[in-house]
Amino acid sequence: MSDRTILVTALQGAGWHPAAWRVAGPAARRLSNLGHWRDVVVEQDRLGVDAVTIEDSFTAGPVDARGDLDTRTVVGRLDALLVANAVAPATRALGLVPTVSVTHTEPFHVATGLQTLDHVSLGRAGWRIQVSPTPREAALFGRRELPAWTGTPDPAATAPLFDEAREVAEVVSRLWDSWDDDAIIRDVTTGRFIDRDRIHNAEFVGEHVSVHGASIVPRSPQGRPPVFSLAHRADAASFAVDVADVVLVTPGFAGREARDLLDEVRHLEQVAGSVVRRPVLADLAVLIGSSVAEAEDDLAALDAAAGTPYAVGTGSDTSVLATTVADLVALVGDLRGLGYAGVRLRPLRIPVDSTAIARQLVPALVTAGLRADVASRPTADLRTRLGIAPAVSRYVRTTAAQGVPA
To answer: Are 349 and 287 in contact (CB under 8 A)?
Structure first.
């Protein structure tokens, strides 16, 4: 079996369980401290995880049934893109994939922020694209009104947001391509720092977004950082196939099985006429114990502290596994057999479960032949590490006769 099994760790606060902060110990007091994030991310990097995603939202935390901030869980967050830029110099090979919403954010700022991360990380930036459908988020900007939020997305209400997000993704891609690789010429003789003919305006006019000019950031190491998108519903899956390089699916949500979800993505690719088969990752929430019984007891204790079970339909949009490293290895093997490229794991407790992923799961996958040893993996940009083809600029100069780069 190929050693290209992709392993991504999803970082959020003290962990994905609402009560995780109660068992996080000293880490719970450092959630707004850059040192905490650096410690967690560096461990993932050092021990061979392919990438981390960093969650973000325009809200400070989850809301309760009345629409007020739920004070039983972590409230307050650092900006994911800024955290990624801050920790990048401390890492060597890890992909850094912040969540950046496009609903209320200017495409120019999205593009340049992620380009900057790609430069700072020497080609290891990614982007988890997200829409923001709640009126609470919209009220922070005052530019639009969104329908009342019931906790369950209404496809009719979210359709315009996904349409807008498609346009934003296109504009961001154009801005990423707007500088040729060799636009900076530094010609001392003529006194020209850049060749203006090698910088291109985005020239995009859509229903939601209009952008004329070019990026201010020179083309970054990857050209276009890989885009991750969560496909946990039919409309989100269609969007992901339209814009993403990596698709995340959520087994167990709405009763959907892993095989069915992968088949749906492949069908949507076919309908869209895509010639590329995107890496699809199973997105799972995990609590890891030395035995299943221990893991189940720990999860039950967290659920009791939270006052409600953390499961599909009650807080989670994917399967929640109280499991062991050995069982996770078997699951990854099964998923690879179905055609999945790997997994994104959401540790219910940080640093307990994130540490187990890095220190125990990674070597266990190597032993099982599902990954190559980290020492044998050369440092590479994130696209290469994920097995995604290099990004070729839409503006690349070609010879008319041969159709190859000039």
So the answer is: yes
Answer for the pair 284, 334: CB distance below 8 angstroms, yes or no: no
The string of DSSP letters for 270-299 reads: HHTT------EEEEEEEEE-SSHHHHHHHH
Q: What does the angle CA 298 – CA 304 – CA 308 come to, to the nearest 5 degrees?
A: 115
Question: Residues 342-368: pLDDT tens digits?
Answer: 999 999 999 999 999 999 999 999 999
Report the 10 Å Cβ neighbour count for 332: 24
Q: What is the pTM of this model?
A: 0.94
Tokens linked to 188? 């001392």
Token pair 């891609």 is at which residue?
173
What CA dihedral angle connects 382, 387, 392 and 398, to 10 degrees?
Answer: 140
- Nearest CA among 322, 382, 379, 386 for reference residue 356: 322
Q: Cβ distance 165 to 103 under 8 Å?
A: yes
Give how far Cα 384 sits from Cα of 112, 123, 395, Å: 22, 10, 22
Phi-psi sector, 78: left (phi>0), alpha (psi -120 to 50), beta: beta
Query: Could you please report the per-residue DSSP string of 201-250?
Result: ---EE-SS-EE-S--SSPPPTTSSPPEEEE--SHHHHHHHHHH-SEEEE-
